[in-house]
Write a structure and sequence with these properties.
Rossmann fold; alpha/beta; about 325 residues; eight-stranded mixed β-sheet
Length: about 325
């Protein structure tokens, strides 16, 4: 059974510093760590931990690993994790987004940023675990706006049941340390593509402990499905953001940066979006990738994760 939660309260309104090696180190116990919440949900063990020396609150999806989100306590609507800033580049690639979908709530960092910086955007959020929604409301200052809607449902099931189209779709659904396999296949990506308005785009967060065959198979799956694809490596975070657009012609780095300058005017993002695009932009469409796309009947995700990318042809 799915549930839709309409959030009608006003979102809560230190520049976010780059999250560095401490995030990985803090995933376990720490002398200065203060546990605010620690319970088993239907899907994960959800832990909310404060790190007073760092001024941060983190969400974990297990005791020793699986950092899902980090919030700066003094600035809860800032983007702390490096990858989340890279995903915001989607708002510069699309000329005028009005309807946005996020799959995977996490600690609500991206939704809070969108609510603050793009208040006119209609934001739908699909989250599998109702306990995650509750934790975000109680511990991560996720107050919502009249334009925000949360649907408690599996992401793929939502796309199958809802015909609603979007300008931007952000995919950030993780089961602790990996994307659920049914959200990685060609059939799923085609379904996502079918829910885009003309000129729409998808941004998906990929994260790997190391380069492996699954990583390149996933890149190939997006490259096969969309006419234009881009790859942003989010600093040294280990995250890679794939942007996949319906546009037939590529968007040059200079144009993307120009659009980022325009949407940044009069706003305080807490980071330099045009400079981020300058550093991370890479067009993936012409890149040779010999790995086969993942499909529903052939997605050996666990096997591919442990194999080197021997079939990947470098440029």
């Amino acid at each position: 059974m799915n549930r839709t939660i309409i959030l009608v309260a006003v979102a809560a309104g230190v520049v976010a510093g780059a999250v560095v090696a401490w995030v990985a180190a803090q995933s376990g116990a720490s002398e200065d760590a203060v546990v605010r919440y620690d319970r088993e949900s239907r899907y994960y063990r959800i832990r909310v931990v404060d790190y007073p020396k760092e001024g941060r609150r983190c969400m974990h999806f297990s005791k020793s690993r699986g950092i899902q989100s980090s919030m700066i306590l003094a600035a809860p609507d800032r983007l702390d994790l490096r990858y989340s800033r890279s995903m915001i580049a989607a708002f510069a690639l699309h000329p005028a987004p009005k309807d946005v979908l996020l799959v995977g709530l996490g600690g609500a960092s991206v939704p809070k940023f969108i609510q603050k910086q793009f208040p006119d955007v209609r934001l739908d959020i699909v989250e599998l675990d109702p306990d995650v929604v509750k934790v975000c409301q109680e511990h991560f200052e996720f107050k919502g706006t009249p334009n925000t809607r949360v649907i408690v449902m599996d992401g793929r099931m939502y796309f199958k049941r809802s015909p609603r189209p979007y300008d931007i779709i952000l995919l950030d659904a993780y089961a602790a340390d990996r994307i659920p396999f049914h959200l990685t296949t060609l059939e799923f990506i085609r379904l996502v593509k079918s829910r885009l308005k003309p000129g729409g785009l998808v941004a998906t967060n990929l994260w790997e402990h190391a380069v492996n065959r699954f990583y390149f198979a996933e890149l190939k799956t997006y490259q096969t499905t969309f006419p234009q694809t881009y790859l942003f490596k989010a600093g040294d975070s280990g995250n890679v953001i794939v942007f996949a657009s319906l546009d037939e012609t590529p968007t040059p780095k200079s144009e993307w940066m120009k659009r980022a300058e325009a949407i940044s005017q009069g706003k305080d993002f807490g980071f330099d979006l045009p400079q981020l695009i300058f550093k991370e932009y890479e067009r993936m469409t012409p890149r040779p990738i010999s790995e086969a796309p993942l499909t529903d009947d052939k997605a050996p995700v666990d096997t591919l994760r442990h194999e080197n990318p021997k079939t990947f042809d470098k440029e």
